[in-house]
Design brief:
Keywords: Cytoplasm, Endonuclease, Exonuclease, Hydrolase, Metal-binding, Nuclease, RNA-binding, rRNA processing, Zinc
Strand content: 15-25%
Pfam families: Lactamase_B, RMMBL, RNase_J_b_CASP, RNase_J_C
Number of domains: 3
CATH architecture of the largest domain: 4-Layer Sandwich
Structural class: alpha/beta
EC number: 3.1.-.-
Subunit structure: Homodimer, may be a subunit of the RNA degradosome.
Number of strands: 26
Number of helices: 21
Radius of gyration: 35 Å
Protein name: Ribonuclease J
Strand order of the largest sheet: 7-6-5-3-2-1-20-21
Largest sheet: 8 strands, mixed
Shape: globular
Protein backbone atom coordinates (compact mmCIF):
# COMPACT_ATOMS: atom_id res chain seq x y z
CA UNK A 1 0.00 0.00 0.00
CA UNK A 2 1.31 3.44 -0.91
CA UNK A 3 2.28 5.63 2.05
CA UNK A 4 0.76 9.07 2.43
CA UNK A 5 3.38 11.61 3.45
CA UNK A 6 2.99 15.23 4.55
CA UNK A 7 5.83 17.69 5.18
CA UNK A 8 4.83 20.72 7.29
CA UNK A 9 7.20 23.52 8.36
CA UNK A 10 6.28 25.22 11.66
CA UNK A 11 9.28 27.56 11.41
CA UNK A 12 12.68 27.87 9.79
CA UNK A 13 11.40 28.87 6.33
CA UNK A 14 11.52 32.47 5.08
CA UNK A 15 13.09 33.46 8.41
CA UNK A 16 16.28 33.02 10.43
CA UNK A 17 16.14 30.36 13.14
CA UNK A 18 13.12 28.73 14.80
CA UNK A 19 13.68 25.44 12.98
CA UNK A 20 10.80 23.00 13.40
CA UNK A 21 9.43 20.62 10.80
CA UNK A 22 6.79 17.90 11.06
CA UNK A 23 6.69 14.86 8.80
CA UNK A 24 3.38 12.97 8.82
CA UNK A 25 3.62 9.40 7.55
CA UNK A 26 0.32 7.48 7.48
CA UNK A 27 -1.02 9.54 10.38
CA UNK A 28 2.05 9.40 12.62
CA UNK A 29 3.82 12.75 13.17
CA UNK A 30 7.60 12.98 13.55
CA UNK A 31 8.98 16.33 14.81
CA UNK A 32 12.38 17.40 13.46
CA UNK A 33 14.01 20.00 15.74
CA UNK A 34 12.20 22.39 18.06
CA UNK A 35 14.00 25.73 17.98
CA UNK A 36 13.49 29.40 18.73
CA UNK A 37 14.70 32.65 17.20
CA UNK A 38 15.79 35.92 18.74
CA UNK A 39 13.48 38.85 18.01
CA UNK A 40 14.31 41.51 15.47
CA UNK A 41 14.06 45.22 16.21
CA UNK A 42 10.35 45.64 15.53
CA UNK A 43 9.38 43.05 18.17
CA UNK A 44 9.61 45.52 21.05
CA UNK A 45 10.02 43.92 24.46
CA UNK A 46 9.90 40.35 23.14
CA UNK A 47 12.54 37.98 24.56
CA UNK A 48 12.32 35.12 22.07
CA UNK A 49 9.95 33.75 19.42
CA UNK A 50 8.92 30.11 19.21
CA UNK A 51 6.75 28.19 16.73
CA UNK A 52 2.97 28.07 17.02
CA UNK A 53 1.73 24.51 17.38
CA UNK A 54 -2.05 24.82 17.47
CA UNK A 55 -2.26 22.13 14.78
CA UNK A 56 -0.16 19.81 16.90
CA UNK A 57 -2.41 20.42 19.92
CA UNK A 58 -5.34 19.18 17.88
CA UNK A 59 -3.34 16.10 16.86
CA UNK A 60 -1.21 15.53 19.96
CA UNK A 61 -2.09 11.81 20.15
CA UNK A 62 -0.44 11.27 16.76
CA UNK A 63 2.98 12.73 17.70
CA UNK A 64 5.60 9.98 17.86
CA UNK A 65 8.67 11.85 19.12
CA UNK A 66 10.99 14.84 18.71
CA UNK A 67 14.32 14.28 16.91
CA UNK A 68 17.09 16.86 17.40
CA UNK A 69 19.98 17.56 15.03
CA UNK A 70 22.25 19.64 17.29
CA UNK A 71 22.37 21.71 20.47
CA UNK A 72 22.04 25.30 19.26
CA UNK A 73 19.06 27.42 20.32
CA UNK A 74 17.63 27.43 16.78
CA UNK A 75 17.22 23.66 17.11
CA UNK A 76 16.43 23.03 20.80
CA UNK A 77 15.44 26.41 22.28
CA UNK A 78 11.66 25.89 22.15
CA UNK A 79 11.83 22.41 23.68
CA UNK A 80 10.97 23.50 27.26
CA UNK A 81 7.77 25.17 26.03
CA UNK A 82 6.91 22.23 23.78
CA UNK A 83 7.33 19.55 26.43
CA UNK A 84 5.05 21.35 28.89
CA UNK A 85 2.21 20.56 26.46
CA UNK A 86 3.36 17.39 24.72
CA UNK A 87 4.68 14.49 26.77
CA UNK A 88 6.67 12.74 24.03
CA UNK A 89 10.19 11.23 23.91
CA UNK A 90 13.16 13.26 22.68
CA UNK A 91 16.05 11.76 20.68
CA UNK A 92 19.46 13.34 20.05
CA UNK A 93 23.20 12.84 20.34
CA UNK A 94 24.86 12.80 23.76
CA UNK A 95 25.96 16.44 23.55
CA UNK A 96 22.62 17.60 22.13
CA UNK A 97 20.63 15.84 24.84
CA UNK A 98 22.91 17.26 27.56
CA UNK A 99 22.30 20.82 26.34
CA UNK A 100 18.58 20.14 25.92
CA UNK A 101 18.43 18.98 29.54
CA UNK A 102 19.96 22.30 30.66
CA UNK A 103 17.18 24.19 28.84
CA UNK A 104 14.41 21.91 30.08
CA UNK A 105 15.66 22.18 33.68
CA UNK A 106 14.76 25.88 33.65
CA UNK A 107 11.05 25.01 33.33
CA UNK A 108 9.51 24.13 36.75
CA UNK A 109 6.70 22.13 35.13
CA UNK A 110 9.24 19.71 33.65
CA UNK A 111 11.17 18.80 36.81
CA UNK A 112 9.97 15.19 36.49
CA UNK A 113 10.47 14.90 32.73
CA UNK A 114 13.14 12.32 31.85
CA UNK A 115 12.22 10.84 28.48
CA UNK A 116 15.51 11.66 26.70
CA UNK A 117 17.20 9.08 24.50
CA UNK A 118 20.81 9.28 23.30
CA UNK A 119 21.46 8.15 19.72
CA UNK A 120 24.39 8.29 17.32
CA UNK A 121 25.08 7.89 13.59
CA UNK A 122 24.79 4.09 13.91
CA UNK A 123 21.36 4.11 15.60
CA UNK A 124 18.22 2.86 13.85
CA UNK A 125 14.77 3.08 15.45
CA UNK A 126 11.91 1.08 13.92
CA UNK A 127 8.49 2.67 14.39
CA UNK A 128 6.68 0.33 11.98
CA UNK A 129 5.86 2.47 8.96
CA UNK A 130 9.03 4.50 9.48
CA UNK A 131 12.61 3.62 10.38
CA UNK A 132 14.53 6.60 11.78
CA UNK A 133 18.32 6.74 11.44
CA UNK A 134 21.02 9.41 11.64
CA UNK A 135 24.24 10.57 9.97
CA UNK A 136 27.07 12.73 11.33
CA UNK A 137 27.66 16.21 9.92
CA UNK A 138 30.14 19.05 10.42
CA UNK A 139 28.95 22.11 12.32
CA UNK A 140 30.23 24.43 15.06
CA UNK A 141 29.06 22.08 17.80
CA UNK A 142 30.12 18.46 18.31
CA UNK A 143 27.92 15.50 17.42
CA UNK A 144 25.75 17.41 14.98
CA UNK A 145 23.62 15.00 12.96
CA UNK A 146 21.20 14.75 10.08
CA UNK A 147 18.02 12.66 10.27
CA UNK A 148 16.67 10.03 7.86
CA UNK A 149 13.05 8.84 7.84
CA UNK A 150 12.82 5.66 5.76
CA UNK A 151 9.34 5.02 4.34
CA UNK A 152 7.88 2.66 1.73
CA UNK A 153 7.95 5.51 -0.82
CA UNK A 154 11.57 6.46 -0.19
CA UNK A 155 13.60 8.36 2.38
CA UNK A 156 12.89 11.80 3.82
CA UNK A 157 16.24 13.37 4.73
CA UNK A 158 16.71 16.42 6.98
CA UNK A 159 20.28 17.72 6.97
CA UNK A 160 20.11 20.04 9.97
CA UNK A 161 22.90 22.64 10.06
CA UNK A 162 25.93 21.44 8.13
CA UNK A 163 28.99 22.34 6.09
CA UNK A 164 31.86 20.32 4.61
CA UNK A 165 35.33 20.75 6.09
CA UNK A 166 38.11 18.34 5.23
CA UNK A 167 40.17 19.46 8.26
CA UNK A 168 37.41 18.85 10.81
CA UNK A 169 38.50 17.08 13.98
CA UNK A 170 36.87 13.93 15.43
CA UNK A 171 33.43 14.70 16.79
CA UNK A 172 32.90 17.23 13.99
CA UNK A 173 33.62 15.07 10.94
CA UNK A 174 31.12 14.24 8.19
CA UNK A 175 30.62 10.60 7.23
CA UNK A 176 30.78 10.91 3.43
CA UNK A 177 30.38 7.16 2.89
CA UNK A 178 27.15 7.21 4.86
CA UNK A 179 25.83 10.12 2.77
CA UNK A 180 26.58 8.19 -0.40
CA UNK A 181 24.80 5.10 0.94
CA UNK A 182 21.69 7.11 1.81
CA UNK A 183 21.65 8.51 -1.71
CA UNK A 184 22.02 5.07 -3.26
CA UNK A 185 19.01 3.82 -1.28
CA UNK A 186 16.82 6.52 -2.84
CA UNK A 187 15.84 9.86 -1.37
CA UNK A 188 12.28 11.02 -1.96
CA UNK A 189 12.69 14.50 -0.45
CA UNK A 190 15.66 16.40 0.91
CA UNK A 191 15.12 19.16 3.49
CA UNK A 192 18.43 20.99 3.26
CA UNK A 193 20.12 23.89 5.10
CA UNK A 194 20.04 27.16 3.12
CA UNK A 195 21.43 29.66 5.67
CA UNK A 196 24.57 30.39 3.60
CA UNK A 197 23.20 29.55 0.16
CA UNK A 198 23.84 32.93 -1.48
CA UNK A 199 27.55 32.90 -0.57
CA UNK A 200 29.65 31.76 -3.57
CA UNK A 201 32.94 31.78 -1.62
CA UNK A 202 34.33 28.71 0.10
CA UNK A 203 34.11 28.58 3.87
CA UNK A 204 37.41 28.92 5.71
CA UNK A 205 38.50 25.70 7.37
CA UNK A 206 38.29 25.54 11.14
CA UNK A 207 42.05 25.04 11.21
CA UNK A 208 42.51 28.42 9.47
CA UNK A 209 40.08 30.06 11.90
CA UNK A 210 41.96 28.62 14.88
CA UNK A 211 45.23 30.04 13.53
CA UNK A 212 43.64 33.48 13.07
CA UNK A 213 42.38 33.50 16.67
CA UNK A 214 45.80 32.52 17.99
CA UNK A 215 47.51 35.20 15.91
CA UNK A 216 45.11 37.85 17.24
CA UNK A 217 45.75 36.80 20.84
CA UNK A 218 49.52 36.71 20.29
CA UNK A 219 50.02 40.15 18.77
CA UNK A 220 47.34 42.12 20.60
CA UNK A 221 48.36 44.14 23.64
CA UNK A 222 45.71 44.75 26.25
CA UNK A 223 42.56 42.93 27.29
CA UNK A 224 40.55 40.96 24.74
CA UNK A 225 36.78 40.60 25.03
CA UNK A 226 35.59 37.70 22.89
CA UNK A 227 31.95 37.74 21.72
CA UNK A 228 30.82 34.19 21.09
CA UNK A 229 27.63 32.13 21.01
CA UNK A 230 27.50 30.09 24.22
CA UNK A 231 26.70 26.81 22.49
CA UNK A 232 29.41 27.21 19.82
CA UNK A 233 31.62 24.62 21.50
CA UNK A 234 34.12 24.53 18.65
CA UNK A 235 34.78 28.27 18.83
CA UNK A 236 35.09 28.15 22.63
CA UNK A 237 37.68 25.37 22.31
CA UNK A 238 39.64 27.47 19.81
CA UNK A 239 39.55 30.46 22.21
CA UNK A 240 40.79 28.27 25.09
CA UNK A 241 43.59 26.81 22.95
CA UNK A 242 44.73 30.25 21.74
CA UNK A 243 44.66 31.67 25.29
CA UNK A 244 46.75 28.78 26.64
CA UNK A 245 49.36 29.15 23.87
CA UNK A 246 49.69 32.94 24.35
CA UNK A 247 49.82 32.92 28.15
CA UNK A 248 46.39 34.43 28.78
CA UNK A 249 43.73 33.48 31.33
CA UNK A 250 40.04 33.23 30.45
CA UNK A 251 37.17 34.63 32.51
CA UNK A 252 33.68 33.33 31.71
CA UNK A 253 30.62 35.58 31.93
CA UNK A 254 27.20 34.34 32.87
CA UNK A 255 25.76 31.17 34.36
CA UNK A 256 24.53 29.93 31.00
CA UNK A 257 28.06 29.78 29.61
CA UNK A 258 29.45 28.14 32.74
CA UNK A 259 26.81 25.42 32.61
CA UNK A 260 27.53 24.70 28.96
CA UNK A 261 31.32 24.68 29.47
CA UNK A 262 31.12 22.36 32.48
CA UNK A 263 28.69 20.06 30.66
CA UNK A 264 30.99 19.87 27.63
CA UNK A 265 33.95 19.17 29.93
CA UNK A 266 32.14 16.26 31.61
CA UNK A 267 31.37 14.75 28.21
CA UNK A 268 34.95 15.24 27.01
CA UNK A 269 33.92 17.72 24.28
CA UNK A 270 36.07 20.52 25.76
CA UNK A 271 39.61 20.13 27.04
CA UNK A 272 41.88 22.66 28.78
CA UNK A 273 44.13 22.99 31.83
CA UNK A 274 42.43 23.61 35.14
CA UNK A 275 44.34 26.83 35.78
CA UNK A 276 43.20 28.43 32.49
CA UNK A 277 39.93 29.78 33.91
CA UNK A 278 39.87 32.61 36.44
CA UNK A 279 37.13 34.33 38.39
CA UNK A 280 36.24 38.04 38.03
CA UNK A 281 37.99 38.69 41.35
CA UNK A 282 41.19 37.03 40.13
CA UNK A 283 41.03 39.01 36.89
CA UNK A 284 41.79 42.25 38.72
CA UNK A 285 45.22 40.96 39.77
CA UNK A 286 46.26 40.13 36.18
CA UNK A 287 47.74 42.46 33.59
CA UNK A 288 45.42 43.43 30.70
CA UNK A 289 47.58 41.55 28.18
CA UNK A 290 47.18 38.37 30.25
CA UNK A 291 43.40 38.25 30.14
CA UNK A 292 40.54 37.18 27.90
CA UNK A 293 36.89 37.84 28.80
CA UNK A 294 34.52 35.42 27.07
CA UNK A 295 31.14 37.17 26.68
CA UNK A 296 28.16 35.15 25.46
CA UNK A 297 25.29 37.18 26.87
CA UNK A 298 21.90 36.00 28.04
CA UNK A 299 20.67 32.85 26.31
CA UNK A 300 23.88 32.73 24.27
CA UNK A 301 23.27 35.98 22.36
CA UNK A 302 26.46 38.07 22.73
CA UNK A 303 25.80 41.24 20.69
CA UNK A 304 23.33 42.84 23.11
CA UNK A 305 25.62 41.98 26.02
CA UNK A 306 28.50 43.74 24.25
CA UNK A 307 26.27 46.80 23.82
CA UNK A 308 25.65 46.89 27.56
CA UNK A 309 29.39 46.59 28.21
CA UNK A 310 30.08 49.49 25.84
CA UNK A 311 27.43 51.60 27.61
CA UNK A 312 28.89 50.79 31.07
CA UNK A 313 25.73 48.93 32.10
CA UNK A 314 27.23 45.59 33.10
CA UNK A 315 27.90 44.94 36.79
CA UNK A 316 31.10 42.90 36.35
CA UNK A 317 32.79 43.91 33.08
CA UNK A 318 32.62 46.97 30.87
CA UNK A 319 34.60 48.07 27.82
CA UNK A 320 37.71 49.99 28.83
CA UNK A 321 40.21 52.14 27.00
CA UNK A 322 42.45 49.89 24.91
CA UNK A 323 40.19 46.81 24.92
CA UNK A 324 39.77 44.73 21.78
CA UNK A 325 36.30 43.31 21.22
CA UNK A 326 36.81 40.21 19.09
CA UNK A 327 33.54 39.07 17.46
CA UNK A 328 33.94 35.38 16.72
CA UNK A 329 30.30 34.75 15.84
CA UNK A 330 28.80 35.34 12.39
CA UNK A 331 25.55 37.28 12.87
CA UNK A 332 22.78 36.92 10.31
CA UNK A 333 22.21 39.60 7.68
CA UNK A 334 19.15 40.73 9.66
CA UNK A 335 21.57 41.81 12.42
CA UNK A 336 23.81 43.93 10.18
CA UNK A 337 22.43 47.24 11.46
CA UNK A 338 22.63 46.11 15.08
CA UNK A 339 26.23 44.96 14.65
CA UNK A 340 27.18 48.28 13.03
CA UNK A 341 25.62 50.16 15.96
CA UNK A 342 27.48 47.90 18.39
CA UNK A 343 30.81 48.65 16.70
CA UNK A 344 30.13 52.37 17.03
CA UNK A 345 29.35 51.99 20.75
CA UNK A 346 32.60 50.09 21.33
CA UNK A 347 34.72 52.78 19.70
CA UNK A 348 32.93 55.48 21.70
CA UNK A 349 33.83 53.53 24.86
CA UNK A 350 37.52 53.60 23.87
CA UNK A 351 37.78 50.06 22.54
CA UNK A 352 38.50 48.55 19.14
CA UNK A 353 36.66 45.92 17.15
CA UNK A 354 37.75 42.94 15.10
CA UNK A 355 35.47 40.30 13.63
CA UNK A 356 36.49 36.95 12.18
CA UNK A 357 34.05 37.54 9.35
CA UNK A 358 36.00 40.67 8.31
CA UNK A 359 38.87 38.53 6.99
CA UNK A 360 37.48 35.00 6.74
CA UNK A 361 34.30 33.32 5.61
CA UNK A 362 33.69 31.68 8.96
CA UNK A 363 30.11 30.48 8.61
CA UNK A 364 29.09 27.18 10.10
CA UNK A 365 26.65 26.62 7.22
CA UNK A 366 27.16 25.19 3.75
CA UNK A 367 27.96 27.60 0.95
CA UNK A 368 26.74 27.11 -2.62
CA UNK A 369 29.23 24.38 -3.67
CA UNK A 370 28.69 22.46 -0.42
CA UNK A 371 24.95 22.47 -1.07
CA UNK A 372 25.50 21.15 -4.56
CA UNK A 373 27.80 18.41 -3.22
CA UNK A 374 25.08 17.36 -0.77
CA UNK A 375 22.59 17.22 -3.64
CA UNK A 376 24.95 15.09 -5.74
CA UNK A 377 25.46 12.68 -2.85
CA UNK A 378 21.78 12.41 -1.95
CA UNK A 379 20.28 12.53 -5.47
CA UNK A 380 16.82 13.53 -4.14
CA UNK A 381 13.70 13.34 -6.27
CA UNK A 382 12.39 16.51 -4.61
CA UNK A 383 14.17 19.35 -2.83
CA UNK A 384 12.73 21.49 -0.01
CA UNK A 385 15.14 24.35 0.84
CA UNK A 386 14.82 25.28 4.54
CA UNK A 387 16.56 27.37 7.22
CA UNK A 388 16.78 30.87 5.81
CA UNK A 389 14.96 33.91 4.51
CA UNK A 390 13.26 33.73 1.12
CA UNK A 391 16.25 34.99 -0.89
CA UNK A 392 18.40 32.23 0.65
CA UNK A 393 15.83 29.55 -0.14
CA UNK A 394 15.66 30.91 -3.68
CA UNK A 395 19.47 30.88 -4.00
CA UNK A 396 19.46 27.24 -2.91
CA UNK A 397 16.81 26.45 -5.52
CA UNK A 398 18.91 28.12 -8.25
CA UNK A 399 21.97 26.13 -7.19
CA UNK A 400 19.90 22.94 -7.48
CA UNK A 401 18.64 23.85 -10.94
CA UNK A 402 22.28 24.26 -12.06
CA UNK A 403 22.62 20.52 -11.37
CA UNK A 404 19.64 19.72 -13.54
CA UNK A 405 16.96 19.35 -10.89
CA UNK A 406 13.67 20.54 -12.49
CA UNK A 407 12.09 23.65 -11.02
CA UNK A 408 8.81 21.77 -10.52
CA UNK A 409 10.66 19.38 -8.19
CA UNK A 410 11.75 22.22 -5.89
CA UNK A 411 9.35 23.57 -3.26
CA UNK A 412 10.01 26.82 -1.41
CA UNK A 413 7.53 26.50 1.43
CA UNK A 414 6.10 28.99 3.90
CA UNK A 415 5.01 28.29 7.47
CA UNK A 416 1.77 26.37 7.42
CA UNK A 417 2.20 24.96 3.91
CA UNK A 418 1.51 21.23 3.64
CA UNK A 419 3.52 19.38 0.99
CA UNK A 420 1.64 16.14 0.35
CA UNK A 421 2.91 13.00 -1.41
CA UNK A 422 0.37 10.31 -2.25
CA UNK A 423 0.08 7.69 -5.00
CA UNK A 424 3.28 8.82 -6.67
CA UNK A 425 2.21 12.47 -6.90
CA UNK A 426 3.37 15.44 -4.86
CA UNK A 427 1.87 18.90 -4.43
CA UNK A 428 0.72 21.54 -1.99
CA UNK A 429 -2.37 20.47 -0.09
CA UNK A 430 -4.66 22.45 2.15
CA UNK A 431 -2.53 24.55 4.49
CA UNK A 432 -2.72 24.84 8.26
CA UNK A 433 -2.76 27.97 10.42
CA UNK A 434 0.75 28.62 11.76
CA UNK A 435 1.91 31.90 13.27
CA UNK A 436 4.56 32.96 15.76
CA UNK A 437 4.32 32.58 19.52
CA UNK A 438 6.10 35.42 21.34
CA UNK A 439 7.66 35.07 24.76
CA UNK A 440 7.70 38.18 26.93
CA UNK A 441 8.95 37.49 30.45
CA UNK A 442 6.82 34.67 31.82
CA UNK A 443 4.07 35.28 29.26
CA UNK A 444 3.82 32.69 26.49
CA UNK A 445 1.71 33.69 23.51
CA UNK A 446 -0.13 36.51 25.30
CA UNK A 447 1.53 39.17 23.15
CA UNK A 448 -0.19 39.56 19.79
CA UNK A 449 0.04 41.90 16.83
CA UNK A 450 -2.20 44.51 18.47
CA UNK A 451 0.05 44.74 21.53
CA UNK A 452 3.15 44.97 19.35
CA UNK A 453 1.50 47.67 17.23
CA UNK A 454 0.69 49.70 20.36
CA UNK A 455 4.26 49.30 21.59
CA UNK A 456 5.59 50.52 18.28
CA UNK A 457 3.27 53.55 18.27
CA UNK A 458 4.29 54.37 21.83
CA UNK A 459 7.95 54.08 20.85
CA UNK A 460 7.50 56.21 17.72
CA UNK A 461 4.96 58.91 18.70
CA UNK A 462 4.40 58.69 22.45
CA UNK A 463 1.20 58.97 24.47
CA UNK A 464 -1.37 61.78 24.95
CA UNK A 465 -3.68 61.57 27.99
CA UNK A 466 -6.70 63.84 28.41
CA UNK A 467 -8.65 63.84 31.70
CA UNK A 468 -12.12 65.46 31.79
CA UNK A 469 -14.65 65.61 34.65
CA UNK A 470 -18.34 65.85 33.72
CA UNK A 471 -21.77 65.99 35.33
CA UNK A 472 -23.94 63.94 33.04
CA UNK A 473 -27.26 64.90 34.67
CA UNK A 474 -26.57 68.61 34.35
CA UNK A 475 -24.95 68.00 30.96
CA UNK A 476 -21.96 70.12 31.71
CA UNK A 477 -18.18 69.88 32.07
CA UNK A 478 -17.25 70.31 35.73
CA UNK A 479 -13.46 70.55 35.32
CA UNK A 480 -11.66 71.65 32.20
CA UNK A 481 -9.51 69.02 30.41
CA UNK A 482 -6.18 68.27 32.02
CA UNK A 483 -3.61 67.09 29.47
CA UNK A 484 -0.55 64.95 30.09
CA UNK A 485 1.92 63.96 27.38
CA UNK A 486 4.86 61.56 27.39
CA UNK A 487 7.15 61.02 24.41
CA UNK A 488 5.02 63.22 22.16
CA UNK A 489 5.94 66.92 22.52
CA UNK A 490 7.47 69.07 25.23
CA UNK A 491 4.36 70.54 26.87
CA UNK A 492 5.88 73.81 28.13
CA UNK A 493 7.14 74.67 24.65
CA UNK A 494 3.79 73.87 23.00
CA UNK A 495 1.25 75.74 25.12
CA UNK A 496 -0.82 76.82 22.11
CA UNK A 497 -1.07 73.21 20.92
CA UNK A 498 -2.21 72.09 24.35
CA UNK A 499 -4.73 74.93 24.68
CA UNK A 500 -6.27 74.21 21.31
CA UNK A 501 -6.33 70.47 22.13
CA UNK A 502 -8.18 71.22 25.37
CA UNK A 503 -10.80 73.26 23.48
CA UNK A 504 -11.29 70.45 20.93
CA UNK A 505 -11.73 67.94 23.78
CA UNK A 506 -14.22 70.21 25.55
CA UNK A 507 -16.24 70.71 22.38
CA UNK A 508 -16.36 66.97 21.62
CA UNK A 509 -17.39 66.15 25.19
CA UNK A 510 -20.09 68.85 25.30
CA UNK A 511 -21.54 67.68 21.98
CA UNK A 512 -21.92 64.20 23.43
CA UNK A 513 -23.46 65.52 26.65
CA UNK A 514 -26.04 67.45 24.63
CA UNK A 515 -26.93 64.32 22.68
CA UNK A 516 -30.03 62.55 24.03
CA UNK A 517 -28.52 59.13 23.25
CA UNK A 518 -25.42 59.47 25.42
CA UNK A 519 -22.90 56.61 25.11
CA UNK A 520 -19.56 56.33 26.95
CA UNK A 521 -17.86 54.41 24.15
CA UNK A 522 -19.00 56.91 21.55
CA UNK A 523 -17.82 59.80 23.72
CA UNK A 524 -14.27 58.42 24.05
CA UNK A 525 -14.08 57.50 20.38
CA UNK A 526 -15.29 60.98 19.40
CA UNK A 527 -12.56 62.58 21.51
CA UNK A 528 -9.92 60.30 19.97
CA UNK A 529 -10.98 61.03 16.40
CA UNK A 530 -11.18 64.81 16.73
CA UNK A 531 -7.95 65.02 18.71
CA UNK A 532 -6.04 62.60 16.49
CA UNK A 533 -7.00 64.56 13.39
CA UNK A 534 -5.89 67.86 14.92
CA UNK A 535 -2.60 66.54 16.34
CA UNK A 536 -1.64 64.93 13.04
CA UNK A 537 -2.41 68.19 11.20
CA UNK A 538 -0.13 70.11 13.55
CA UNK A 539 2.71 67.62 14.16
CA UNK A 540 2.38 64.78 11.60
CA UNK A 541 2.50 62.35 14.50
CA UNK A 542 -0.07 59.89 15.76
CA UNK A 543 0.38 59.38 19.51
CA UNK A 544 -1.66 56.89 21.50
CA UNK A 545 -4.60 58.97 22.78
CA UNK A 546 -6.14 57.94 26.09
CA UNK A 547 -9.26 59.96 27.02
CA UNK A 548 -10.09 59.56 30.73
CA UNK A 549 -13.67 60.72 31.46
CA UNK A 550 -14.69 61.01 35.13
CA UNK A 551 -18.23 61.60 36.31
CA UNK A 552 -19.36 63.38 39.49
CA UNK A 553 -22.81 63.63 41.04
CA UNK A 554 -23.59 67.15 42.29
CA UNK A 555 -27.20 66.44 43.37
CA UNK A 556 -26.75 65.57 47.08
CA UNK A 557 -29.69 66.83 49.18
CA UNK A 558 -29.08 68.77 52.35
CA UNK A 559 -29.39 66.73 55.52
CA UNK A 560 -32.19 68.78 57.11
CA UNK A 561 -34.32 69.38 54.05
CA UNK A 562 -36.81 66.61 54.72
CA UNK A 563 -37.56 67.75 58.23
CA UNK A 564 -38.24 71.30 57.04
CA UNK A 565 -40.56 70.15 54.28
CA UNK A 566 -42.40 67.63 56.37
CA UNK A 567 -41.02 64.49 54.80
CA UNK A 568 -43.15 61.41 54.97
CA UNK A 569 -42.01 58.62 57.34
CA UNK A 570 -41.42 56.19 54.46
CA UNK A 571 -38.84 58.58 53.02
CA UNK A 572 -36.81 58.67 56.24
CA UNK A 573 -34.38 55.86 55.31
CA UNK A 574 -33.47 57.74 52.09
CA UNK A 575 -32.97 60.96 54.01
CA UNK A 576 -30.77 59.15 56.51
CA UNK A 577 -28.56 57.76 53.69
CA UNK A 578 -28.17 61.22 52.19
CA UNK A 579 -27.21 62.56 55.58
CA UNK A 580 -24.63 59.83 56.10
CA UNK A 581 -23.13 60.48 52.68
CA UNK A 582 -22.32 64.12 53.48
CA UNK A 583 -20.21 64.71 56.58
CA UNK A 584 -21.11 67.90 58.50
CA UNK A 585 -18.54 70.66 58.54
CA UNK A 586 -17.25 70.99 62.15
CA UNK A 587 -16.81 74.74 61.72
CA UNK A 588 -20.40 75.18 60.56
CA UNK A 589 -21.70 73.03 63.40
CA UNK A 590 -19.91 75.13 65.97
CA UNK A 591 -21.50 78.35 64.65
CA UNK A 592 -25.09 77.20 65.31
CA UNK A 593 -26.87 78.94 68.23
CA UNK A 594 -27.04 76.91 71.46
CA UNK A 595 -30.83 77.21 71.83
CA UNK A 596 -31.32 75.63 68.38
CA UNK A 597 -29.00 72.80 69.32
CA UNK A 598 -31.04 72.11 72.50
CA UNK A 599 -34.29 72.17 70.52
CA UNK A 600 -32.82 69.73 67.93
CA UNK A 601 -31.78 67.36 70.70
CA UNK A 602 -35.29 67.41 72.16
CA UNK A 603 -36.75 66.75 68.72
CA UNK A 604 -34.44 63.80 68.24
CA UNK A 605 -35.29 62.36 71.64
CA UNK A 606 -38.96 62.64 70.87
CA UNK A 607 -38.59 60.96 67.51
CA UNK A 608 -36.32 58.18 68.70
CA UNK A 609 -39.00 55.62 69.69
CA UNK A 610 -40.66 55.98 66.32
CA UNK A 611 -37.33 55.51 64.52
CA UNK A 612 -36.56 52.43 66.58
CA UNK A 613 -39.93 50.92 65.77
CA UNK A 614 -39.51 51.66 62.07
CA UNK A 615 -36.06 50.01 62.00
CA UNK A 616 -37.44 46.86 63.51
Amino acid sequence: MSAKIKIMPFGGVRENGKNMYAVDVNGSIYILDCGLKYPENELLGIDVVIPDWNYLRENKDRIVAVFLTHGHADAIGALPYFLTEFNVPVFGSEMTVALAKIDVATEPKLKDYDDFHVVDEKTEIDFGDVVVSFFSTTHSIPESMGIVLKTDEGQIVYTGDFKFDQTAKPGYQTDYARLGAIGQAGVLALLSDSANAENPAMNASEQTIAEDIEETFNYREGRIVVACVASNILRIQQVFDAAAKTGRKVCLTGQDLEKIVHTAMKLGKLSFDNDLLVTPEQLDSLKPDETVVLQTGKMGEPIKAIQRMANKQEKTFNIQEGDLVYITTTPSHAMDTTVAQTRDMIYRAGGEVKAISDDLNSSGHAYKRDLQLMLNLMKPKYLVPIQGEYRLLNAHANAAMELGIPAEHIFILAKGDVLTYSNGKIGLGEGIDVSDTMIDGIGVGDIGNIVLRDRKVLADDGIFIAVVTIDRKKKQIVAEPKITSRGFVYVKANKDLMQESAEIISKAVQNNLDNKEFDWGHLKQDVREHLSHYLFEQTHRRPVILPVIMEVNQHHRRSGSKEKTGAKPKQQPTAKKAKAAVKPDPATKAQKPNHKAHRNRKRRRAAKPAETTDNK
